């Protein structure tokens, strides 16, 4: 019988698949019913394979507001591998600041001209119109907790910023963060939508509102 060659899903796998599709439908339904904002956190799902872990809404909001204050009126903000802060900044819909996102995940190209493809392995491979020291503050969250990743991301940060840096990374990176960027740990502790195994902290090189 030819039907014998057709792979059959176990009842457990089938139930799990149905549950997944149901959750997906519910998510889409929620987006529609809430008049979904493409900039809200969660509008693009985390991709763990890209080491993406979104901040909680409260953390993203706190970091976004800090960036706006630090940038000043008419300030320019760059978010390097920190898409949930970028999304919150867009949600704030401020008229007195501008923002762009440097990100490896091309799904964020839906944000148009503000999206800049970025690979930390090529830290200075940036568009010509992205001039050196053209941002009042750079908010960065290197995707990996390694000195190599931090060092390369630091090259990008130092190229972009006029001076101010807001870095989010693991507590274990404190020494390397000071070494490569001259930043110090803040009292504020960032939270993620999902609890991470590694303790995360914020670091700055200016007098911030995060202490």
Describe the overall structure:
This protein has one domain: Vaccinia Virus protein VP39 (Rossmann fold, 3-Layer(aba) Sandwich), CATH 3.40.50. It is α/β, with parallel strands linked by helices and 211 residues long. It has a seven-stranded mixed sheet with strand order 3-2-1-4-5-7-6, sandwiched between helices. It is built from five helices and seven strands. Helix 4 links the parallel strand 4 and strand 5. It has helices at 11-33, 57-71, 83-92, 147-160, 174-181, and strands at 75-80, 97-103, 115-117, 135-140, 161-170, 184-185, 200-204. Residues 28-36, 39-43 and 46-52 have low confidence and may be disordered. This is N(6)-adenine-specific DNA methyltransferase 2. Its main location: cytoplasm. One of its GO terms (molecular function) is nucleic acid binding. Keywords: Cytoplasm, Methyltransferase, Transferase. It catalyses: L-lysyl-[protein] + 3 S-adenosyl-L-methionine = N(6),N(6),N(6)-trimethyl-L-lysyl-[protein] + 3 S-adenosyl-L-homocysteine + 3 H(+).
